[in-house]
Amino acid sequence: MSSSLDPTLATVVAPVGSGRVLVAVDGLSNVAAGPMALRIEGHLRERFPGHEVTVGVTTCESGEISLRRELSAAPAFRAPSLALSGVEGQHSALRAVLEEAVWTSARVVALVSAEAHDDSADWLGTLLGPILDGGFDFVSPAYLRHKGDAAINTGIVYPLTRALYGRRLRQPLGGEAALSLPLATRLLEDADWGRDPATAGSDGWLVAKVLATETRACQAWLGAWPRPDGPTEDPSQTLARILGMLFREMERHAARWQRVEGSAPLPTFGEPGLLDGGPQPPIDRFVAAFQLGERELASLWGLVLSPGARVALRRAAAVPERFRLDDATWARIVYDFAVAHFARLVERRQLLLSMTPLYLGWAASFAAETHGLDVKAIEDRVEQLCRAFEQQKRYLISRWRWPDSFNP
Fold this sequence. Notes:
- This protein is an alpha/beta fold.
- The chain has two domains: about 10-270, Spore Coat Polysaccharide Biosynthesis Protein SpsA, Chain A; about 285-400, no CATH class.
- Helices cover about 45% and strands about 15% of the residues.
- The chain contains 17 helices and 14 strands.
- The protein has helices spanning about 35-45, 95-105, 125-130, 150-165, 180-190, 190-195, 205-210, 235-250, 255, 285-295, 300-305, 305-320, 325-345, 350-355, 355-370, 375-390, 395-400, and strands spanning about 10, 20-25, 50-60, 65-70, 80-85, 85, 90, 110, 140-145, 165-170, 175-180, 215-225, 265, 270.
- Helix 1 links the parallel strand 2 (about 20-25) and strand 3 (about 50-60).
- The relative contact order is 0.12.
């Protein structure tokens, strides 16, 4: 008997029936993905006993991405391969995984990281269940994090994506996902693989393709965030990479998002929330970085930002002990940079890197405002920020349509 799923918040129960479950573990970012693949395969066979389970690891050899099996006794993959594609060195294995899913008629295909997950949350069941038992085509993950984690998502990715596409996907670039066979087939046939191989298959590309269409999507809270081990990317490089993905997809789907007003929640599975504790962001250091940027990047920002935003930034920099950046100003700043990227007002790489001091200024302001707040109050504050992005969307559309003649 199939379970009945609450369209707003539910705990997924084990589905019944048959069909292939294909899971690809990210071996491109973690060369030690093999043991995790073995653990996942064993767990899936217990969790979904009525399904044929196949687990592989994405690998890159001689410039090609492919899948490999870890169990020596398991049947070999067809081993699809393709030339490397990706954004600024962040290679995507999505196409190889989609090829395998379509070739084997997998009922559901999932891409997961090789980091240790929160097994207490039944994360595999929560990720796969909405497709196997609920009829969804796309499941986007969300994770429990400390308040200071994922500030780029809180301040830019979530409110921007929500305002653009009108769907409240809480953590759009989670790095993991589950897809149905019909969606995998449609994505594999997309012309972008040949037309724009440098960006096709990225996290931003996948999420935009889903949100800009009528795909039946949901999100699943998978417990505590599987924090990556080892060295992390420089924050300014991370911000530039993420902004580049978002802004490129804005250009690709401009005709769609300019017709969207407001936003609506997505069906949600699992238990949302925040983790207790975590380090307090270094507010003073963030404000100092913003002030330095305000002095050294004033001429560049003057090419991008409206006069009103420039005045607001100068006022904020003048009183660092009470530094605040209001939501409407921040939303317009993000939109100004998106338009500048689209219109190539500044060399794109330089433009994206120049936003770091502005982002740190916003992060300092948000951290100061939310210090000491409980989970509900913090989420209410995020909701307020998202509404400001939605309210300022007419500003974005006006600038986007007439970037050369716009005079704020």
